[in-house]
Design brief:
356 residues; alpha/beta; Globin-like; Methyltransferase, Methionine Synthase (B12-binding Domains), Chain A, domain 1; Rossmann fold; five-stranded parallel sheet; 5 strands; 7% strand; globular
């Protein structure tokens, strides 16, 4: 039995006043603490407005999902980011409280009640959040030496060395799936942590992602060598998603498991996704979203695909960071299940098809 999408639009009234709320919150901050202007100046004040606009965006999506945990996780992430920029954690907490009160005053209703619950959960949890999260490459993990060397090459901008060391290890017998699980995945997460803590730039992060995708492409002849099993899946990101390497890796794991995968990347129109499902006779659609503001988009895509596919049998699985934070979030977006990683996605798809 397919799940009914339970996501609502409770966050819409907040999003509708996103700019107004952000500017009002910053204005209240600067009025309460005049030294902020002396510290940041006019340009810094506008940057504060932009930061609060992001707070509002993430808060509205958490309200829509009725999930204080999603917003608390965002606030924890932002605290680490701001610490790297020299912004005291207390200022962020004060900003969130001001924002909560403004939403109560200017929006009201159920949206304001949910927003207050989200903000209170975040502010309560913030003091326990450290500003120096540990490395995401475990020293005792399999192939940790290769992961560290690969990451160092990426940060140094040496794509050739990064490529050679992985290919040499694979040629020497390392399974391709281990390169994905124990090298690419932890390294990309660590790259994200380094950016979050201010140790590398956005340019470094983009280069690392592009270089890793290039190495993955070189491994494709080995990925597609698995014996076919007569099953097909379509993989896509929601519109606006910039981090598509995760869903690409998921599609590759389906290939390694003997499935035929049809990877659409990001920004594929709904009708194109449906057409691909029909033309390929796909039994599974995998959708990825890596940030909370895209959860509502996932729900909208699931609804649209369900409507367009009519009575054709298929399953939808979702994944990405928000679904790790909220294990039951997949139910709210109307999917048939969620998996924490590529291995789990294949296992879930096999199980769902076995149950159908």
């Amino acid at each position: 039995m397919w799940n009914v999408c339970l996501m609502d639009h409770a966050g819409a009234p907040i999003l509708a006043k996103r700019d107004e709320l952000a500017r009002a919150a910053v204005e209240a901050q600067f009025a309460r603490w005049p030294d902020l202007y002396a510290r940041y100046g006019a340009a810094g004040r506008e940057k504060c407005v932009e930061d609060v606009r992001y707070h509002v965006l993430y808060l509205a999506e958490a309200v829509g999902a009725d999930s204080p945990g999603l917003f608390a996780a965002y606030a924890a992430w932002a605290k680490v980011l701001f610490a790297g920029l020299g912004i005291p954690a207390e200022e962020m907490a004060d900003s969130l409280i001001l924002l909560r009160d403004l939403i109560t005053e200017r929006v009201g209703g159920a949206a304001a009640q949910r927003a207050a619950a989200c903000v209170d959960a975040a502010v309560t949890a913030l003091p326990a959040v450290g500003t120096a999260p540990p490395t995401l490459i475990e020293p005792e993990a399999p192939y940790a030496d290769l992961a560290c060397a690969f990451m160092d090459a990426l940060v140094a901008g040496d794509r050739r060395r990064a490529t050679e060391m992985v290919m040499e290890r694979v040629d020497g017998g390392m399974p391709v799936r281990d390169a994905y699980l124990h090298v690419f995945q932890p390294v990309l997460r660590e790259i994200g942590r380094l950016w979050q803590t201010g140790r590398i730039t956005v340019a470094h992060e983009h280069f690392a992602t592009a270089a890793t995708q290039a190495v993955i492409s070189m491994l494709y002849p080995r990925i597609f060598a698995a014996e076919r099993r007569g099953r097909t899946m379509v993989a896509t990101c929601v519109s606006g998603e910039l981090h598509e390497i995760g869903i690409r890796m998921v599609a590759d794991f389906f290939e390694m498991a003997g499935w035929d995968s049809y990877y659409l990347g990001a920004n594929a129109p709904t009708r194109s996704i449906v057409r691909a499902m029909i033309d390929r006779g796909a039994q599974v659609l995998a959708i990825s979203a890596t940030i909370t503001p895209h959860v509502g988009t996932v729900a909208a895509l699931v609804r649209a695909v369900r409507a367009e596919m009519g009575g054709r049998p298929f399953r939808i699985i979702v994944g990405g960071y928000p679904f790790l934070l909220e294990p039951e979030l997949w139910r709210r977006v109307g999917a048939d299940g969620s998996a924490p990683d590529a291995v789990g996605a294949v296992e879930l798809a096999e199980r769902l098809l076995g149950e159908s």
